[in-house]
User: Fold this.
Amino acid sequence: MTDRNDRTSGTRSTDRTPTGEIPREPYGVGPAYPSSHTQFVDEAPTRAGRYAAPEPVGTPTGGVPTASGAPQASQTGPTGATAGDDPYYAPSAELTVSDGVRDVGMIFLGSSMTAGYGDPKGLGWVGRVVARTQHPDLDLTAYNLGVRGNTSGDVVARWNAECHPRWAGRGERRLVLSVGTNDLVSGLTMARSRLNLANVLDEATNAGIGVFVVGLTPTLDDELNRRIEALAEAQADVCARRGITYVDCYRPLATHDQWMADLAASPDRVHPGQAGYGLIAWLVLHNGWNDWLSLS
Assistant:
């Protein structure tokens, strides 16, 4: 998520204090793990492929965009084929999941939202997800490599050098990727943003690394949201073509009152507090997370 603090300019209608300042709503209030989100229920996703987990029976879902409803890109990918010529990408290596207790190195890669900027509890969605991923069959080592202001191009440039040393000695390598809003703010084209994401996914899966993608979140800026929604659909299409699990965060949160209220009450009106990060964590944990990790 972008670090600019001038995303919206509207003034809320509320009484002013004797000093003339507009009182701010409490920041970061609300449960870290919301117990019920009926607004998250959407149409059942259609996913296929090696990393795409089947939807758990009876579990509410945010609804994952599918390739059939996403825009078709014509840029050339790493293999030289266009998106239309290569509807499904087959990696050259397989992710190995061993029996017994598994030594898993898990890296979260992205920008300020991945880093959890603005959460007064210092957890962000990553900390909440890791806390809920403790399992007797997992010896989990997790790293948060979120960097404020990063674009997908920045992630392409640094992911190899920063991730591989942290995977050294681990029996199972996992990558959770969430990036893209800064692409829109910095002026990257849709084609370049798609290609950057595809490059990381292809390089990782070719190396036998399990990948999971967390989608973009809405802002308080309607115009920016239209562009975010288009990029979110493009990212979903990139993932669908590779059979990689993609969590749609945009559509469930765009109409979620608690998410919008948390953004409006935050100091920069861009990054959420603990309630907002809890909502993202809920979406991740309820959209194929355990299936991706092969946990019962």
User: Anything to note?
Assistant: Strands lie at 102-110, 138-146, 172-178, 210-214, 245-247. Confidence is low (pLDDT under 50) at residues 1-39, 41-86. Residues 258 and 276 are 7 Å apart (CA to CA).
